[in-house]
């Protein structure tokens, strides 16, 4: 909850402070998030040890290690230290400069919204739909990213935890698109926001369909494998 509050609150705060000039700051904000998601698995990788029984497959062989050798608490301590540094920096900024005056363009937007004919009910509907979209979007994004390591280790792939960490890091590296893509398309987002919104929804839909197809294919091959094993018996 604290993380999401900082993430969404940071976006709103940047918009409040910079108004229509906030694009590069929001991009840098999300780029920093992508960098953290990229570095996090790499920090954890040296501290991951196998504790399961020996498992051999074409892709991997694991080594038995006693639980006493587990050092997974150290990456948590390292990441907590980074978070503490951010908290200290924000505290210093708060005590040095407490001004929270909105950007002039933001004041103009607020005045225009006050004159808007949009009803209170419509505002509630828009907020509800936006929250629902973010709930499912970030839920899928984070759940897939956090479950990838467990999946590739415990599934038929039987990859080791080190390889799984590198795979998760590469997955999270794609989050840096939030910084690169806006610069690649320039100011066209401001000129044609609906077009890019439709493109974003279309890409998300295609990604979901791809995952559904892959899941169905995997289920088909699992059933075929089970049938072959049953016929052998």
TrEMBL record:
Keyword Cytoplasm: no
UniProt-listed PANTHER family: SODIUM-DEPENDENT GLUCOSE TRANSPORTER 1 (PTHR23121:SF9)
Family annotation (SUPFAM superfamilies): MFS general substrate transporter
Name of the protein in question: Sodium-dependent glucose transporter 1-like protein
Keyword Transport: yes
Chain ranges passing through the membrane: 74-96, 117-138, 195-217
Matching Gene3D superfamilies: MFS general substrate transporter like domains
UniProt xrefs under InterPro entries: MFS, MFS_trans_sf
Organism listed in the record: Dinothrombium tinctorium
Entry keyword set: Membrane, Sugar transport, Transmembrane, Transmembrane helix, Transport
GO molecular function, one term: transmembrane transporter activity
